[in-house]
Amino acid sequence: MKVTIPKPCHENWAAMTPEEKGRFCQVCSKSVRDFTNASDQEIIDDLSQNPNICANFRVDQLDRNLSYSFLNSLFAKFAVGFVLTSGGLVAAQTQSQPHHPVKANAITKVTGEIVVAKVPKKPVKIDKNSPFILGKIASTGVDRPDAPIYVLNGKIITENTFYKINPDTIEKMKVLKGKHATSKYGAKAKNGAVIITLKGKK
């Protein structure tokens, strides 16, 4: 997904009334969602549910492909009720890590919350003094070169159709990777195949 703002809004962000997820614009009588601290995944999730919103973005968040975690989305949506197989067992060898003794002056108590940060492949330089861009969003779908194929009850479906499936209607879901996927579905399954069987269908 790529986020663009064809007609940026010229209202003053600081003059808007603060709200839970952003600010309220008195001029437009609309809520403006603040995505300046949001991850790419949060932006994708929010825009998928409501593509016609006004929002505040950092300049570096616009006009680029947003990073989308297919596996995180898959496991979040279908957390229970599916079987994940890769066509066999894989043996893994591990190397033992060298033991490093703890220094006597090491901190023994740490308080706070764990924060998981996604590090971009290329560092993004953010100019804190540059203006933010406000406006109505136009999001466009981007064909993901790493997308698997989706097979629903024996028929190949689109990724959009896959995400519209009600998780409660799924009886079984199976993921094929590598040779197992290509041997069954050919070259179009080079990135894997997600096979879904609905309840009451065989």
TrEMBL record:
Gene3D superfamilies (UniProt xref):
TonB-dependent receptor, plug domain
Principal place of residence: membrane
**Record carries keyword Transcription:** no
As for subcellular location, the record says: Cell outer membrane
Q: Which terms in the GO cellular component ontology are assigned?
A: cell outer membrane
Q: Which family does it belong to?
A: Belongs to the TonB-dependent receptor family.
Q: What is this protein called?
A: TonB-dependent receptor plug domain-containing protein
Species of provenance: Epilithonimonas lactis
